[in-house]
Write a structure and sequence with these properties.
The protein is α/β, with parallel strands linked by helices. The chain is 29% helix and 22% strand. The strands form 3 sheets. Strands 1-2-3-4-5-6-7-8 form an 8-stranded parallel sheet. The structure holds pyridoxal-5'-phosphate (PLP).
C-alpha cells in the first residue's frame, strides 16, 4: 500500500499516485475521504484506502468512488452502513478495515473494547470486515521495545477477533520505519498465524528518504536498513532561479529590518522563494546554505514571503536566470531533507509537505 496522503507528501498527488500504480502498487493510502476522491479521479484501478475514516455525510462518497475506509467508532459504522443501504448494497459488500489502537492513542479501538465494535459485523450488515490495521508509532527506535509491545497487543486483538468468529483477509501494519527496520517478517508471521496476509504501508521511503533511527541500534543494524540507506535516492529536487544579482557596498542593509549589514562589498542574488513557498523564515539569518554554481551559499537577512537573499560573493559566475537548488543535488553538493529538517527543528515529512502549492511540481523521468 503506497501512502500518497498530503499531496503525495508534498511531491504532487497528480504525479505520485499514478507513478505508484505504474510501480506496482495495488493499494493507495490517503488520509481523508476528500483526498481519496481526488485520488480516485486520477487512478481508476487501485484500491484506495482512507486512513482517517469517514465523517458524517461522507459515506455516499465512499460508496460512489469505491473507497475503503478505516473504522473504529460507532458513528463511523452508522454512517457507512446507512450510505451502503441507501445505495442498495447487499450484505457484506462494502469493505472496511478495523483499526486497533495498539498504543499510540490516536485512532482505533483498544483490544479490551472490541466486543461492541465486532458486534457491528453482523451477517446482515452491508459492511465487509476485510482488514485489520494498526499504526506502529516507534519503529524508528533501534531498541524496538515499543514495537514489540504493540505487536503483542495486536496479537491479543487478533485473537479476540478470530475467537468472535471473524476472519478478515488482511493485516495492515507498518510504515517506512517498520519496512526499513525489518519488522515485515515478524508481522507476516503474525498475520499468517491468524490466517491473514500482511500489507505494509510505506510513505517516506517511497519518496526516497530513509527514516532516521533514534535512538540508534546498539548492536548490528538490520540488513534491510543498511540496504535501504545505500539504495534509496530522494525523488524530489526543489529548484529556483536567480532573479538578479546585486553588488552592494560594505554597510548596506539587506532585507526586512536590515538584520544583515554587509561587512564588506558583496554580491547578493535575489531568489523568488520565500516562506509562502515553504522556504521558512527559520532558514534566514546566515544559518542555512543552498546551492548555486555547484557550491554552497548562505541565505542572509530575513526570508520574505516571496523572496530570499543569497550571498554569492564567493561564487562570481552566478548571474540572473541561474538555477539554484534549495533541496537536492547540484554538481557534487547536496542539501538533504534532513538538513532542512535539522535547521528548522522538524522532520523531513514536514519539510516536504510544507512546500507551497505555487511551487510547480514537474516529473522529470
Ligand atoms: C502516514 C502514515 C503512514 C506512512 O508513514 P511513513 O512514516 O511516511 O512511511 C502509514 N500508515 C499510517 C496510518 C500513516 O498515517
Amino acid at each position: 500500500m503506497a501512502v500518497v496522503k498530503a499531496e503525495g507528501y508534498g511531491h504532487s498527488l497528480e504525479l505520485c499516485a499514478p507513478a505508484a500504480v505504474r510501480g506496482g502498487a495495488r493499494w493507495l493510502a490517503v488520509t481523508s475521504v476528500e483526498e481519496a476522491v481526488a485520488t480516485r479521479k486520477l487512478c481508476p484501478e487501485p484500491r484506495i484506502f482512507a486512513i482517517g475514516s469517514a465523517f458524517a455525510g461522507q459515506g455516499a462518497a465512499v460508496v460512489e468512488y469505491n473507497l475503503t475506509p478505516s473504522v473504529w467508532e460507532q458513528e463511523q459504522f452508522d454512517e457507512l452502513e446507512a450510505a451502503a443501504r441507501a445505495a442498495g448494497l447487499g450484505p457484506g459488500t462494502l469493505p472496511v478495515h478495523l483499526e486497533i489502537d495498539t498504543g499510540m492513542s490516536r485512532q482505533g479501538v483498544a483490544p479490551e473494547d472490541l466486543a461492541p465494535v465486532l458486534a457491528r459485523f453482523t451477517p446482515a450488515s452491508p459492511l465487509r470486515f476485510e482488514g485489520v490495521m494498526t499504526h506502529l508509532f516507534a519503529a524508528d527506535e533501534g531498541d524496538g521495545g515499543k514495537t514489540a509491545l504493540q505487536i503483542k497487543t495486536l496479537n491479543d486483538a487478533l485473537q479476540r477477533i478470530t475467537s468472535a468468529g471473524h476472519f478478515p483477509d488482511l493485516l495492515s501494519a507498518g510504515s517506512s520505519a517498520a519496512v526499513v527496520c525489518g519488522w515485515a517478517e515478524r508481522l507476516a508471521q503474525l498475520a499468517a498465524s491468524h490466517g491473514m496476509k500482511l500489507m505494509m504501508r510505506p510513505g517516506l521511503a517511497l519518496y526516497g528518504v530513509t527514516p532516521r533511527i533514534d535512538p540508534p541500534y546498539t548492536g548490528e543494524e538490520p540488513a534491510t536498513l543498511v540496504a535501504t540507506r545505500k539504495n534509496l535516492q530522494p525523488a524530489l529536487t526543489w529548484k529556483t532561479r536567480v532573479i538578479c544579482v546585486r553588488p552592494i557596498p560594505a554597510g548596506a542593509m539587506v532585507g526586512y529590518n536590515g538584520t544583515f549589514i554587509a561587512p564588506k562589498p558583496m554580491r547578493i542574488a535575489l531568489l523568488p522563494a520565500g516562506y509562502a513557498d515553504g522556504f521558512v523564515r527559520l532558514l534566514g539569518g546566515g544559518r542555512f546554505s543552498v546551492l548555486a554554481g555547484g557550491r554552497r551559499a548562505k541565505i542572509v537577512g530575513r526570508v520574505c514571503m516571496d523572496h530570499s537573499f543569497l550571498d554569492v560573493t564567493e561564487i562570481p559566475d552566478v548571474k540572473a536566470g541561474d538555477e539554484v537548488v534549495l533541496l537536492g543535488t547540484q554538481g557534487s553538493e547536496t542539501v538533504s531533507a534532513y538538513e532542512h529538517a535539522d535547521a528548522t527543528g522538524t522532520i523531513p515529512w514536514e519539510v516536504f509537505t510544507r512546500i507551497g502549492p505555487r511551487v510547480d511540481r514537474i516529473e522529470i523521468e
